[in-house]
Design brief:
The chain is mainly α and 1201 residues long. It has 41 helices and 17 strands. The chain has four domains: 112-319, no CATH class; 336-528 and 602-654, Serine Threonine Protein Phosphatase 5, Tetratricopeptide repeat; 682-1069, TIM Barrel; 1079-1191, Malate synthase, domain III (Malate Synthase G, Chain: A, Domain 4). Its EC number is 2.3.3.9. Belongs to the malate synthase family.
């Protein structure tokens, strides 16, 4: 590059969602911390205003970018009156550095105060510095765009430095806000090694935003207001603040229309020079709108059909308008590409192909109209460029790539996934070649800019960054096409693109740092055996005289590569390709051979005089159409989104992703600090291999801190409810709920039809019986129906391991248990323990491991690839979820795990049980967080009732009647079901029904018939409500459930039924439930809870009690109701006052009754010891399972693997 670069590693991706997930203490707490930090660093003036507004600011919820900015700015201006006591009259001309600190800087600003955090306060620039920055701005932006009337601006700047009095007057005008923005932009355009992180000019930009008037009054500024908004938009755009820029540019367009700047030249009622200025500013605004909208895949603010394209003509005192006009045409064509080619089905095949031909013709013509003094002679290998010319060509070639890239990506996808059914036609090859050549020319332009020292290298120029990334994207896709040929080296231009991104990154451009990371990681996968791209995130390159990042020419293996200790992979000598003006540096079957010399009627060899559809033929036209409308490759034209689609769909083995957990970056794990404290036996030694234990340790070290943080948030939510804050839909995620376009994953193999699922623990007998049942899926339960003794958990893993491999048959006494072979076995879905449970028999670094991660880790590690080979996959049920942040943690676990064993992301599927009152308000968000792994939601009815009582236990208005009266048709349960089904189907995923807990009665046919009728009614309610499947707890109930669902749901599921429902917060917490609290209900609750706890203490997770299959969830409902009734002094229908004394008397009676009929060596006395304090309205354990867990642990000395 001709200069020494310092590579600054960027550890935090420039990604709003990524930053949110790592905020400590939740959204609101984090916001309050930031406000207090900002207060310490602001000027006396701003401090004064913030103190006046403290209560208002504290009430603002965190909102994404523009919304928060708008709210905060509105607050500034609500307090913008000239208060006589305000310190404004004493405010200094510059802001003093009261508390300089070099804090970590995040580019995702929530306000202008956040923007300047960690950046020293700065004085306004002196006159010489102002002129220098203005010249930088003009040289970079003043030819192809038009932001300022240069004469007016320089006159005002002269006045600014003329005298103290004139300076004070200028600083009190709207022009001074414009001046600050020009200075901020100028700072962005210089190569400035800074000591603090953050975008150059941020402090001046923040000061400009502080001075910005309310948007409803900015029109009073006239054309200066438009210039201000235009520059503010550009500053945000250059700093990769695309959402904020989109918000600003929409306002800018509307102001321009309000001022009439879009009117034809002859209709503007002002002086000729002002008309010329207004028109040029208008077309600059138009370009910004088109490009920012295209970059986000969103609609532009103005429809071209309503515009008069009266482009600027020559005007005295102004530069030639031709560069500006060319830029406008490119922007207009880019917008048309996005709105037509990427409209997904809006155009017929013939219309789409014709539209593509016209767009390519337009780009060809635009390229030919670039003024001669800006044109680039590509036939000269050492061509020179101007800044303005380079900018136009970069945008032109990006538009060509945008027009053709889906064809390239579709063909590469077909080749890599071996789904290609027809040979690649010469026409398709021509288009791919055109896309590739555009990418190569982009890189050559960027290299020429670096070669010419007189060209300003603006490290924050968004179109330089976007062009480099777009070109690298294409070159990597070419690499995929040749991936089977391990001896094909990467093109020189890819190294040059990496080199350019590295320069931008080292200058502090965090967006470039993330793109650089993406490009390196994908490249390292494509050319894994040719060149080392990644070692501690650094591309390894030669160090001799060649350009930085270009592999050295050599005739011996590994020339120019870093030395490696030990055996090295096979590597080929790299020869530096020689780029030419017209021939790409590679050839290949998919892209055709070297092109002939291109004539004037061709665009890099594509003959545009012919009818494109006829020239391509029907086969090629169909291929082009399908490339833009492939439902398995939903391309948007947005670089980062299309890149993400390729990560999901094109990486064989799933080893290339945005945030891969490579071996070199994985949490380093050693077995020395892992202790296995449970008894060792044949099953444990088979399951707890060194490799599996290492994986468990990695899971623990990677995710345990986040788990602990989320558990603390659960405690805080309970405190909030106790203090009067009822649960509600989250305002900070409203945009997720309101966006109707996103969907969850398509159903995975084996999960399309789930009409009846059986549930049960993982003992060997249950596993065989469940898999032999006439059901569609078996939920193998490590949670509520399973007692989590060490032996149960390990033996359960061994049983599932054997069942998956069809080696689970066994003999018990004289009876043989064998898997049936006459039909396909039900799909296996494992349910892990919840986030709240520990596995105390397995510790890492002295801490017990999460039970959820222990269950998931062993099942996934041993069985994922085996399940895939059998046509299914690693599928899970996730219980006790309380927020979308907990779903996000699971998604992170899934991504890391899939990367670790080398399978594609999205292979894991998870159904979330909505069984907490807080989760019901975040169902959209939960599916969204897991969307690539989501297989739907389930109505966990018993736990849901339990958490309803638990969450509101300290509030007297939420009393519920006897458990038997709280059915699925009571108001709050009905609202819960309706909202769950509506939410799931709107997002394209399954809405699963709940458990039929009744079990057959052999001793009483009449009672049995009544019970089975109840099961039928429950399943009929579910299928008619819209559920896609249901649960049963006993094989005998499977036929009843199947009969009902087969009759009323003839299709595999009914996701296509999308009921419109209106469910409010009040509906979901409506505790008005018909029924009574009875003396018998009290005794039943005591009987169920004691009986269940006694069995659990013996290691039995589910028990048949009173002909109901009781598990932890049903027991939790019973004991929580008892606690609530005593705590709030409720009386039964018979008039019994439920106080502590009464409850303990009944408790003792029930305990004695159970002891009389119990076998010896029972655990009733121990169960009574734990339950007794839990039913008096005083002590309340979060979960019975955590209360009792120490009693079933069998911790011993650690044993060696």
């Amino acid at each position: 590059m001709g200069k020494i670069r310092t590579n600054i590693k960027q550890n935090s991706p420039n990604n709003h969602e990524h930053n949110l997930r790592h905020l400590p203490g939740g959204y609101q707490q984090g916001h309050q911390i930031r406000v207090h930090q900002a207060l310490r660093r602001l000027s006396p003036l701003v401090k004064y205003r913030l103190q006046v507004m403290a209560q208002d600011i504290a009430s603002i919820e965190r909102a994404p970018g523009p919304l928060f900015e708008q709210r905060l700015r509105s607050l500034f201006h609500e307090n913008n009156g000239k208060d006589p006591d305000s310190p404004e009259k004493d405010a200094p001309e510059h802001l003093e550095n009261e508390d300089p600190r070099d804090l970590p800087f995040t580019p995702e600003w929530t306000s202008t105060n956040e923007l300047i955090k960690g950046i020293p306060h700065q004085a306004f620039p002196k006159e010489a510095e102002s002129n220098r920055l203005l010249n930088l701005f003009n040289s970079y932006m003043g030819v192809t765009q038009h932001f300022l009337d240069q004469r007016t601006f320089t006159d005002n700047m002269t006045l600014l430095f003329n005298s103290q009095a004139s300076r004070a007057r200028q600083m009190d005008t709207p022009w001074f806000t414009l001046y600050l923005l020009v200075m901020a932009m100028g700072k962005l355009m210089e190569e400035d090694p800074r000591e603090v992180r953050g975008p150059p000019g941020a402090f001046w930009f923040a000061e400009a935003m502080r001075r910005l008037p309310p948007l409803h009054s900015i029109s009073e500024y006239g054309i200066v207001g438009l210039e201000i908004l235009c520059l503010a938009t550009t500053y945000l755009q250059w700093n990769d603040r695309k959402n904020d820029a989109y918000f600003f540019v929409g306002t800018t367009v509307r102001l321009a229309l309000t001022l009439g700047c879009n009117l034809p030249f002859s209709e503007q009622k002002c002086l000729p020079s002002e008309r010329a200025h207004r028109m040029r500013v208008w077309w600059t605004v138009y370009m910004l709108d088109q490009r920012i909208s295209a970059g986000l895949g969103r609609p532009a603010s103005v429809d071209d059909r309503h515009l008069s394209f009266d482009l600027p003509g020559p005007s005295p005192g102004f530069d030639s308008p031709e560069p500006l006009n060319v830029n406008v045409k490119i922007a207009r064509t880019t917008g048309e590409i996005m709105s037509s080619l990427y409209s997904r089905g809006a155009l017929s095949q013939a219309d789409l192909v014709r539209k593509m031909r016209n767009l390519l013709q337009s780009l060809h013509d635009i390229g030919g109209s670039i003024p001669a003094d800006l044109a680039i002679d590509f036939s000269n290998k050492q061509f020179e460029v101007t800044r303005a010319g380079a900018s136009l060509y970069l945008r032109l070639f990006q538009s060509i790539i945008l027009c053709i890239r889906p064809i390239l990506l579709q063909k590469v996808k077909d080749k890599v996934q071996k789904t290609q059914k027809q040979a690649v036609t010469s026409a398709i090859s021509q288009l791919c070649l055109l896309c590739n050549e555009s990418a190569l020319r982009i890189i050559r332009i960027l290299m020429a800019m670096q070669r010419q020292e007189e060209i300003v290298e603006a490290p924050f120029a968004f179109f330089d960054l976007d062009a480099a990334f777009s070109a690298a994207f294409v070159l990597i896709m070419r690499g995929f096409a040749h991936k089977q040929d391990s001896q094909k080296p990467p093109p020189q231009e890819l190294f040059q693109a990496i080199d350019f991104l590295e320069y931008l990154s080292s200058a502090g451009n965090q967006a470039a740092a993330q793109r650089l990371k993406d490009v390196r990681q994908f490249s390292a996968h494509v050319w894994a055996n040719v060149v080392a791209f990644d070692k501690d995130h650094d591309v390894q390159m030669g160090e001799s005289g060649a350009s930085h990042g270009v592999p050295q020419v050599g005739n011996t293996p590994g020339a120019g590569l870093p030395e490696q200790s030990g055996p090295s992979p096979a590597q080929m000598p790299l020869t530096t390709p020689t780029p030419s003006s017209s021939v790409p540096s590679w050839e290949g079957e998919m892209f055709g051979g070297p092109a002939d010399t291109y004539g004037s009627d061709t665009l890099f060899g594509l003959n545009l005089d012919e009818n494109l559809e006829q020239a391509f033929g029907l086969e090629a036209a169909e291929g082009i159409y399908n490339s833009f409308n492939d439902p398995t490759l939903p391309l948007t034209g947005v670089d980062q989104l299309d890149w993400a689609e390729l990560e999901k769909m094109m990486a064989p083995g799933g080893s290339v992703f945005k945030y891969p957990y490579r071996t070199s970056t994985m949490v380093q794990s050693t077995l020395d600090s892992v202790s296995i404290l449970g008894a060792g036996n044949e099953a444990s030694r088979r399951i707890l291999t060194k490799e599996a234990v290492n994986f468990l340790a990695i899971l623990h070290r990677s995710f345990e801190p986040t788990r602990q943080h989320l558990l603390k948030l659960r405690q805080q939510r309970q405190i909030d409810t106790d203090n009067g804050h009822l649960p509600d839909f989250l305002p900070e995620t409203k945009h997720v709920r309101d966006d109707k376009n996103w969907r969850g994953a398509q159903p995975a193999p084996g999960l399309v039809n789930r009409r009846v699922e059986i549930t049960g623990p993982t003992d060997r007998k249950m596993v065989v019986n469940a898999l032999n049942s006439d059901v569609w899926a078996y939920m193998a339960d490590f949670e509520d129906s399973n007692g989590p003794t060490w032996d149960n958990m390990i033996q359960g893993q061994a049983n599932l391991y054997d069942a998956i491999r069809r080696q689970v048959d066994f003999k018990l006494g004289e009876k043989e248990y064998k898997l049936r072979t006459d039909r396909t076995l039900p799909t296996l879905i494992a349910r892990t323990r919840g986030w709240h449970l520990d596995e105390k028999h397995f510790t890492v670094d002295g801490q017990p491991m999460s039970g959820a991660l222990f269950d998931f880790g062993l099942y996934f590690f041993h069985n994922a690839k085996e399940l895939i080979s059998r046509g299914a996959g690693p599928y899970f049920y996730l219980p006790k979820m309380e927020s979308h942040l907990e779903a996000r943690l699971w998604n992170d676990v899934f991504n890391m795990s899939q990367d670790y064993i080398g399978i594609s992301r999205g292979t894991i599927r998870a159904t979330v049980l909505i069984e907490t009152i807080s989760a019901v308000f975040e169902m959209d968000e939960i599916i969204y967080e897991l969307r690539d792994h989501s297989s739907g939601l389930n109505c966990g009815r018993w736990d849901y009732i339990f958490t309803f009582v638990k969450r509101f236990r300290n509030r007297p208005g939420f009393v519920l009647p006897d458990r038997s009266d709280v059915s699925m048709t009571v108001p709050f349960m009905d609202a819960y079901v309706k909202l769950l089904i509506s939410t799931c189907h709107a997002r394209g995923v399954h809405a699963m029904g709940g458990m039929a807990a009744l079990i057959p009665r052999k001793d009483d046919p009449a009672a049995n018939a009544k019970a089975m009728d109840s099961v039928r009614a429950d399943k009929l309610r579910e299928v008619k409500a819209g559920h896609d499947g249901t649960w049963v707890a006993h094989p005998a109930l499977a036929s009843i459930a199947s009969e009902i669902f087969n009759e009323h749901m003839p299709t595999a599921n009914q996701i296509f039924i999308r009921p419109e429902v209106k469910v409010t917060r009040d509906d979901l917490i409506n505790s008005v439930v018909p029924g009574k609290i009875t003396d018998e209900g009290v005794r039943k609750n005591l009987h169920i809870t004691l009986a269940y706890m006694e069995g659990w203490l013996r290691g039995v997770g589910c028990s048949a009690i009173n002909y109901l299959m009781e598990d932890a969830a049903t027991a939790e409902v019973s004991r929580s109701q008892l606690w609530y009734w005593v705590h709030h002094g409720v009386s039964t229908a018979e008039g019994t006052k439920l106080d502590k004394t009464t409850m303990l008397n009944v408790f003792d009676e029930v305990t004695k009754e159970l002891l009389k009929s119990a076998p010896t060596n029972n655990k009733f006395e121990l169960a009574a010891k734990y339950l007794r304090p839990q039913v008096t309205g005083e002590d309340y354990a979060d979960f019975l399972t955590t209360l009792l867990y120490d009693e079933i642990t069998s911790v011993g000395p650690s044993w060696k693997l």
